[in-house]
Write a structure and sequence with these properties.
This protein is of the alpha+beta class. The chain is 43% helix and 38% strand. It has two domains: 39 residues; 168 residues, 2-Layer Sandwich (Alpha-D-Glucose-1,6-Bisphosphate, Chain A, domain 4). Strands 1-7-6-5-4-3-2 form a seven-stranded antiparallel beta sheet. Strand 4 and strand 5 form a beta hairpin.
Length: 211
């Protein structure tokens, strides 16, 4: 009887593991189809856009020369964005970035991987560290961060800015735990933060370039 019970338990565990693997493969395949070359396995991906009354070239120039100055003003949880080896954002620029709230501060060490003038800035942080404060001490969790900033002309004096962020977990199990622990509320909070950052960026552009 005991042996039979053990076999049933082991069989159930094996089935759960198989379902978990199938689910992970299916979700990664779905995301790869949706995001193409920007797909990162086991990641949460968010994207948002905002329009700006200026050309893509003007907004791009503002971003590469002034984003470090206005970063802390673009969103409530933004604290620091420091260029470490250049005066403006370009390929190979290293950036230290700090954001978050009192109980969870995220430290990014970005490297700008690709720049297409007036069109794209792509930077990565491998890894980013999340410092989580608890009642008894603190813990550090790691993930990879990939950020795409894009600039599109809509008309002569109107452009669209798009931010796409991929947060890659160490494996699919970590992603699943994050989804279970955070749920829809955490997803909505990240999406609201991304939208806040975009709107804050445009508002700061306007204050630098009143028309």
């Amino acid at each position: 009887m005991i042996m039979k019970t053990k076999k049933v338990i082991l069989f159930s565990i094996a089935n759960l593991i198989a379902l978990f693997i199938i689910w992970a493969i299916a979700e990664n395949a779905s995301q790869k189809k949706k995001f193409g070359s920007r797909f990162k396995p086991n990641s949460f991906i968010m994207t948002d856009t905002v329009n700006c009354h200026a050309s893509a070239k003007e907004v791009y120039q503002f971003y590469i020369h002034h984003y470090d100055e206005i970063y802390h003003k673009t969103a409530e949880k933004h604290h620091e964005f420091k260029l470490l080896n250049s005066d403006s954002i370009a390929e190979a620029t290293k950036i230290y970035c700090r954001e978050g709230e009192e109980t969870a501060i995220i430290h990014h060490q970005y490297l700008v991987q690709e720049v297409i003038p007036n069109k794209l800035i792509y930077k990565t942080s491998e890894p980013s560290e999340v410092h989580i404060k608890k009642d008894k001490g603190s813990t550090i969790q790691k993930c990879n961060s990939y950020v795409y900033v894009e600039f599109f002309d809509i008309s002569e004096n109107e452009s669209r800015i798009a931010f796409t962020i991929a947060i890659q977990m160490p494996n699919y199990f970590y992603k699943l735990i994050g989804r279970i622990m955070g749920g829809r509320e955490a997803k909505e909070e990240w999406e609201e933060h991304l939208n806040e950052e975009l709107i804050g960026f445009v508002e700061n552009y306007k204050s630098f370039n009143p028309k």
